[in-house]
Design a protein that fits this description.
single chain; alpha+beta; globular; 80 residues; 3-stranded mixed β-sheet
Length: 80
Amino acid sequence: MDLAESLGIEIRRAPMSGDFSTHPGGSFIRLKGRSILFIDPSAAWNDQVAAAALALKGRKELDGMFLPPEIRDLIENTSQ
């Protein structure tokens, strides 16, 4: 989550209700020029991490940044 915040992504923790089987850990949106990552604190930790990785995937800012190989791998190989 720190990495996302360092790239200007706003993190909001909010329990999700309803059927979010396609986004079990959270969801990433762009709203009026702002990037917001909603994380469901009641979701499993690995689902929360997957939601964050999906929000970071493809961000050009990461190209020149050192990331531990495991983190870079997680971000690059995450899927919807």
